[in-house]
C-alpha cells in the first residue's frame, strides 16, 4: 500500500515540475547548489521505482514498462558514471611522455581511483592545426606514440580521441610553444630538464612571455621571438615550422637580456641554463566515465520501448473518422 | 545572375512565393468552404524542390552544408519542415485543416530569412562527423511533427474564429484531437533520439556528452515539458483546451530552442577558436 502511494502518478507530475523549475532556476537565476536538480531527480527515481513495482498499468503495457525501466536504468548509470568519473586537463609538449602528475584534475567522483592513471603511456609527437582567415580553426592532427615507439603512432584530433585504459584524451584548442631547458646548478654539476609552456598560440600571439624561476636561482622573464609569424589573414597551418629561426630571450631582474637559439647556453647567476629545444605543446581534455556505453544502451532501449508503446496504443489503430456533428453557439463548442 | 540577384536569392524568393501561394490557397479554400488540397500540395511540393535547389546551390558554392549561421538554419528548415509537412499533409488528411495555422508559421520563417544576412561561415572541424547528420535529421523530424501538431492544436484552441470552426466541423473534433496526440507522441520519440544522437556527437566533438550549455538546457526543457504534457494527459482528465495549450507551449519552446538560443548565446556548441 505504501509502495503504491510512493509510486503514485499524482506525485510524478509535481516532481517533474520541480525538476523543470530547478533546471530553469539553475540556468536563469544561477542557483548554485546541484542539489536543486539532484533532489527532484532522486525523488523521481524513487517514485518511478515504486511505480514500476506496484503500478498495474505497467504490467498491461509492455512497451511502457520497457521505457520506464530503461529510463530508471539511465538515471542509475548516470549516477554511477558521475561517482566513478574523472575530468581534467593535461598539457604535453612534443617529445614529452604522459605522466599522471601532469593531470590537472577538474572533477573527480569519489569512487575514481587516481592510481589508474599510472596505466597510461604515451608520448606526444608532431602537431598540425589548420586555420582559415580570421583565426577560424580547422582540423587538428596530433600524432601520439604509445610507449615512445614510433611504430605505434596514432593520429588523434577533433572527433577522434586517444583512448587508453578507458580514459579518453581529446585535443583542445589550447596549444602553444614551449622551451625545453636544461639547468645545471654549476658548471659540470648535475643537470635538470624541464619544459616551460608559453601562453596559448595563436590566441595570445602578442603575449609570448612567461615569468620563470631557475630552480634554486633567480626569477627570469622568458620571451619567445618568432620570425616566421603566420599571415593570419590567409589560410595557414600551425606546426613546428613556426619554430624555425625562433629565439628565446632571457631577462633577469637587472634588465640584462640574453638571446638563445636551441643548443645555446646562458649563465644566470650560479646556474647554467641551456636551451635544449623549442617545441609545441598541446592541451588535452582528459575524460573517464565507465558508464558511457551503458547509458547509451539504456537510452536506446528506452526509445525502442516508447516506440513500441505508442505503436501499440496509438499509431497502429486507424484514426476515428466519424464526422462529429458540432454546433457553434456563441463561441462555445457543443456536440449534438 | 538576374539583375544583380544571385541564383540563391532568386531560388529563395521563388520558394517563399510557393509557400505563400500554398497558404493563400489553403485559406481561400477554407473561406469559400471548398478545400483544395491538391493545389496546396502542388505549391508546397514545388516550394520544397526550389528550397532544395537553393540549398544545393549554396552548398556547392561554399563547400559546406547549411548547418551554421541563422540564415543557413532557417534555409535548411524551410526545406525540411516543408518536406515533412508536405508528406504529412498528403498522407494524413487529419492534419490538413491545421495548415491554416501551420503554413503561416512556415511562411513566417520565409519572411524572417529575408531579413537575415546570408554571409557564410566556416565549418568547425568537429562537424565532420556522421552523428551530426543523425542528430540534425532527427531534430528536423521532431520539429516537423511538432509543426503539424501545433497547427491542428491551435486550430482547435481558436475555434471561436468562424473559419477555423468550419474547418474543424468538416474533419471532426475527435479525429483532429487524436491526430494532435499521435503527432506529439512521434515528436517525443524523435526528440529523445535527437538528444541521444546529440550526446554521442558532443562526446566525440567536445569530450563531454552533456554539459548544460544553453542549447542543451533548452532542449532538455523542451523534452521535459513534452514529457509532462503527455503524462498530464494520461494522469489527469485534462480539459481539452489545456492539452492543446500545452502542445502549443512545447512548440514555442522548440521554436526558441532551434532558432533563438544558438544565435543569442556564444555557446561552445559552435566550437571555434
Ligand atoms: C519518474 C516517475 C515516473 C512514473 C512513476 C511514471 C509512470 C507512468 C505511467 C504509469 C504511465 C502510463 C500511463 C497510462 O498509459 O495509463 C506513464 C506514461 C508515460 N510516461 Fe511516465 N513515469 C515517470 C517518469 C516519466 C518521465 C521522466 C518521462 C519523460 C519525460 C515519462 C514519459 C512518459 C510517457 C511519454 C508516457 C506515455 C504517455 C502516453 O501513453 O501517452 N515518464 N508513465
Tell me what the structure shows:
The complex is a heterodimer of chains A (336) and B (273). Chain A is of the alpha+beta class. Chain A folds into two domains: 2-85 and 290-316; 87-287, no CATH class. Chain A has helices at residues 2-6, 9-29, 35-54, 56-60, 62-84, 292-315, and strands at residues 86-93, 104-108, 123-132, 136-145, 153-156, 162-164, 167-184, 191-197, 209-213, 219-225, 236-238, 247-251, 257-260, 265-268, 271-288, 326-329, 332-335. In chain A, helix 2 runs antiparallel to helix 3 (35-54), helix 3 (35-54) packs antiparallel against helix 5 and helix 5 (62-84) packs antiparallel against helix 6 (292-315). Mean pLDDT of chain A is 90; it is low at 323-336. Chain B has one domain (7-263). Helices cover 76% and strands 0% of the residues of chain B. Chain B is built from ten helices and no strands. Chain B has helices at residues 7-32, 37-62, 70-91, 99-113, 130-157, 162-171, 173-206, 214-235, 240-259, 261-264. The longest helix of chain B has 34 residues, at 173-206. The interface between A and B is large, with 56 and 58 residues. Protoporphyrin IX containing FE sits between chains A (7, 9, 12, 44, 47-48, 51, 55, 57, 64, 68, 71, 313) and B (188, 224, 227, 230-231, 234).
Features:
heterodimer, A: 336 residues, alpha+beta, 2 domains, 7-stranded antiparallel beta sheet, 4-stranded antiparallel beta sheet, 17 strands, 29% helix, elongated, disordered C terminus, B: 273 residues, mainly alpha, 10 helices, binds protoporphyrin IX containing FE
